[in-house]
Amino acid sequence: MNQPFEFLFRVRYSECDPQGVVFNARYGDYVDLALTEYMRAAMGGYNELVHMGFETQVVRLLTEWKTPARFDDVLKAIVYPSHFGNTSFTVTFEFINAGTNVLVATAQATYVLVDAKEFTKQTIPAEIKSALQEGAVGKQINQAG
């Protein structure tokens, strides 16, 4: 199996709740950040998709937590597409504590490809599917500092 795309980032203080752990809703933000960096690595950025006349809309987001993440932890998001339909695709995210190599959470997000002006569902073109499947393989973006 090819090395998947990795995105490293550091948990910020403002992302933690009074229990001292990352607030659950922040994982939606983490998914969005990781997908943005995945798209940058796979096809030059989300704006390239828009330039082609498309946008994506989230239609499903599932998160499962395994162990807490805390302020200043470095998380490694492993990102890969796990399913393609005609107009939608699902991306899987594994959030791992980079210091301990412990799985923190997993997420799956399903996106529908839509026309950038009318927001109507569109068939995923072969070049976009190929870019999402192959364009980010083995790449890493590190924003952890």
Tags for this model:
single chain, 145 residues, alpha+beta, 6-stranded mixed beta sheet, 3 helices, 6 strands
Outline the structure in words.
This protein has 145 residues and is of the alpha+beta class. Helices cover 23% and strands 39% of the residues. A six-stranded mixed beta sheet has the order 2-5-4-3-1-6. 26% of the residues are buried.
Strand-helix topology:
Blueprint: E1 5-10, H1 26-43, H2 46-51, E2 54-65, E3 74-84, E4 88-97, E5 102-115, H3 126-134, E6 140-142
Parallel strand pairs: 1-6
Antiparallel strand pairs: 1-3, 2-5, 3-4, 4-5
Helix pairs in contact: 1-3
**How large is the radius of gyration?**
15 Å
Share of β-strand residues: 35-45%
Overall geometric form: globular
Helix content: 10-25%
Question: Using DSSP, what is the number of strands?
Answer: 6
Task: Output the structural class.
Answer: alpha+beta
N-to-C terminal Cα separation, in Å? 28 Å
Helix-strand topology string = EHHEEEEHE
- Overall pLDDT metric: 96
The total count of helices amounts to 3
Enumerate the strands of the largest sheet in spatial order, edge to edge or round the barrel.
Answer: 2-5-4-3-1-6
Largest sheet: 6 strands, mixed
Uncertain segments of ≥5 residues (pLDDT<50)?
A: none
Short description:
23% of the residues lie in helices and 39% in strands. The chain is α+β, with helices and mostly antiparallel strands.
